[in-house]
Amino acid sequence: MAVYIPDKNRYDGTMKFRRCGNSGIVLPEISLGLWHNFGDNSSFTNCREMVHYAFDNGITHFDLANNYGPAPGASEEMFGRILKDSVLIPREELIVTTKAGHEMWDGPYGNGSSRKMLITSLNQSLTRMNLDYVDIFYSHRYDGVTPIEETMQALIDIVKSGKALYVGISKYPLDKAQMAYDYLKENNVRCLVYQGRYSMFNRDPENGIIEQAYNNGAGFVAFSPLAQGLLTDRYVHGIPSDSRISKPEGHLQREQLNEQVLDKIRSLTAVAQKRGQTLAEMALAWVLRDSKVSSVIIGASSVSQLKSNLKGVANLSFGKEEEMIIDDILNR
C-alpha cells in the first residue's frame, strides 16, 4: 500500500479561512461532512481518497456525529480507520467535530440531551475515531425535555475533562440558544459555534439565528447548503436513477421536487450560468456571501464531486441586481 504524503502546498491561498466567532479558531470556508457517504456501505478506498483530497486542498474541518452512518457510529469508525491508515496527516492540523443528541442506541439512555447521554456518547465517539479529544463537541439538538442547564453543564465538564477543546450547539430555537449562550458564558466556557441548516431553499437562520450567534461571539456553520442535492444540476432534466431522491429510505423524498421547486432550480441555474458557475457552486457562494458565516459543510460521494464543489469559493461576490433576481426566484 502506497504511503500517503500530504501536499505541502495545501495552504497556498486557494482555500480561504474565516474567524469562527470571537475566538482564535479559523475554519476553512468549505468543510467536509461525513453524514451519508462514509457509512458501512461505503468503500474504504473511496472514503480515504476523499479525505486525502479534502486535506490536500485546504479542508481542515471534518464534521461528524455519533449517529452518522449507516449504521449509527459507522462514519466515525470509517474516519478513525482513515486517520489510522493515513499516519502522516497531522492531528494538530485538523478540526474534528462530533455531536450527540439524536437517537443512537435502543433504550432509555440512547437518545436526548441528558448529561448521561452526552458524556457516554462522546466516550464512544472517541473510541470509534481512535482519538483522545475532539476539537468541537456539539449538543446536536434541544430535545424539548432536558433542562438547558443540565445539557450545558455537561458540555462545560466535557471541556474541563480535556475530551473537547470547544463546544457548540446545533438546531436550537432562538430562545433556547440564548439560554445556552448565557449559561456557558456565565461559567467561562463560551459557545464557539452554532451549526444550522442553511441554503437558498432554507433561509430560516436569517430570522435571527445568525445574528444571535454573532452577537454572542459565536460562529455560524451552515450544513446542507445544497439542500441535499436539490441545488445542483442533477434534477434539471428529471430524476436520475442513482440519485439520492430516487431511494425510498433517504431523507430527500420525491414530493420535495415538485414543479414549483423545479422552476426555481431551472431559473437559478440560468443565473449561475451567467456568473460562470454551476448551480451548486453558486449555491455555496450564496451561503458564504454573509461574512458572519464561518464555513459551509458539504457532503460528497466522490473526489470528482468534492473537486467540483470546491470551485464554489472562486466567486463569492454578488451584485445588487443578482441578489434581487435570486430573491425574486426564491420568493415565487
Shape designation: globular
Number of helices: 10
CATH topology: TIM Barrel
What class, by secondary structure content? alpha/beta
The number of distinct structural domains comes to 1
Radius of gyration using CA atoms only: 19 Å
What are the secondary-structure elements, in order, as H or E? Answer: EEEHEHEHEHEHEHEHHEHH
CATH architecture: Alpha-Beta Barrel
Low-pLDDT parts are none
* Total beta strand runs: 10
* Order of strands across the main sheet: 3-4-5-6-7-8-9-10
What is the helical fraction, as a range of percent? 25-40%
Tell me the name of the CATH class: Alpha Beta
Description:
It is a single chain. This protein is of the alpha/beta class and 332 residues long. The chain is 36% helix and 15% strand. The protein has an eight-stranded parallel barrel with strand order 3-4-5-6-7-8-9-10, surrounded by six helices. A two-stranded antiparallel sheet has the order 1-2. The longest helix is centred in the C-terminal third of the chain and has 16 residues, at 259-274. The mean pLDDT is 94.
